[in-house]
Amino acid sequence: MPVFRRGIASTMRAKLSQDPKSSQGYSLRATGRLLALLALASALLPLSACRSNRGDEDRARGAPELVYERAREQLNQQDFNSAIRTYEALIARYPFVPEARQASLDLIYAYYRGREPESALDQADTFIRENPTHPRIDYAYYLKGLTDFERSANFLERWFSVDLDARPPQTARSAYNSFRKVVEDFPRSAYAHDARRRMIHLRNRLADYEIYVARYYQRREAWVGASQRAKLVLEQYDGAPAVREALEILIECYEALGMTELANQSREVYAFNYGGTPADVVPIKNQWWKFWN
User: Fold this and answer.
1) Quick one: CA dihedral 287, 290, 292, 293, positive or negative?
2) Cβ distance 32 to 51 under 8 Å?
3) Which of 17, 144, 190, 214 would bridge 124 by S-S if both were Cys, CB 3.0 to 4.6 A apart?
4) pLDDT for 61-106, tens place per residue?
5) Whole domain around residue 80: which residue ranges?
6) Whole-angstrom Cα distance, residue 55 to residue 62?
7) C-alpha span between 129 and 148 (Å, rounded)
8) CA atoms in the 13 A half-sphere facing the CB of 186
9) CA–CA separation, 162 and 104 (whole Å)
10) At what angle do helices 20-59 and 8-18 cross, to 10 degrees?
């Protein structure tokens, strides 16, 4: 009869099962190798940490002004990751020099361009809290608003034309408040004009969302909730295109609730701003292609 050679693994298992001492020795050897690997890994961790520390020390090597110039050059070359690490090393090594304060401001921009929005917002809040009288604090508020502004819609949402009115404006309101701080507190700031333009866009965005919610309540005949949302648009987002639709919703809600006097007052406001007489004011119907309303 032919004799077949058994595999190495099966042979090893057979020998170990026949000899308990060999099995025990094999287990001890495996455990010893595992412990040796763990010891080697633990020995390498301090080396990697030391290497990282040496890298930070190399980045912060030299006088503060030289380190700052190095970081600034990296920022101008759009090497944002290197600039971030150099700015952080400068602030850690020379926390009380004027260059460190300027680095704290530049670091907001580096985080923003380096696509680290959370770090940019945290750095902006830290800078504003620690430097309330800094001559360029308007820039910190502007960058904070810009970071939130660009988080309002991602690439896929813009690509597929997602209806942003149906989405809660989670960051739009924060961006709006930051830009408003620049416009109201620093009207002569170099960033005030762009902040005002972005505020208009955000105001319209926030007003459209409130109208979306008001229409949702209106379809379910929740007249009180719908009227409250419409009044919110009138009070907080004056000048937005959605104000006209908010007045229409308000008139319909007041009529449904039997508040004739308030409905008539709203009609007078509507007629004064959009023409016609209060008696002839009829809310504009939704366009036929807006089948979701």
Assistant:
1) negative
2) no
3) 144
4) 778 999 999 999 999 999 999 999 999 999 999 999 999 999 999 9
5) 50-114
6) 13
7) 18
8) 21
9) 37
10) 120
DSSP labels, 183-220: HHH-TTSTTHHHHHHHHHHHHHHHHHHHHHHHHHHHHT
Count of structural domains within the chain = 1
The 3-state DSSP composition of the chain as helix, strand, coil percent (nearest 5) reads 75, 0, 25
Q: Which two tokens stand for residue 32?
A: 């010893």
Evaluate whether residue 270 is within a structural domain: no
The CB density around residue 243, as the number of other CB atoms within 10 Å, is: 18
At 13, the amino acid letter reads R
Residue (of 205, 265, 252, 204) closest to 226 by Cα position: 252
* Dist. CA 250–CA 255, nearest whole Å: 9
Q: Which residue, among 88, 94, 93, 57, has the nearest Cα to 75 in the 3D structure? A: 88
Q: Are 174 and 206 in contact (CB under 8 A)?
A: no
Eight-class DSSP state of 150: T
Q: With contact defined as beta carbons under 8 Å apart, do 112 and 146 qualify?
A: yes
- Go through the chain and tell me how many residues it has: 293
Residue 245 maps to a domain: no
Summarised one tens digit per residue, pLDDT across range 132-160 is 999 999 999 999 999 999 875 544 444 44
The greatest distance separating any two alpha carbons of the chain, rounded to the nearest whole angstrom, comes to 112
248 within domain boundaries? no
What's the burial of 147, exposed, middle or buried (CB within 10 Å: 0-12/13-18/19+)?
buried
Phi, psi values for residue 222, rounded to 5°: -90, 80
Structure tokens belonging to residue 37:
């690997």
The token pair that represents 145 in the structure block: 């608003």
Phi, psi of 239 (to 5 degrees): 100, -15
Distance (Å, rounded) from C-alpha 282 to C-alpha 270? 10
DSSP state of 258: T
pTM: 0.69
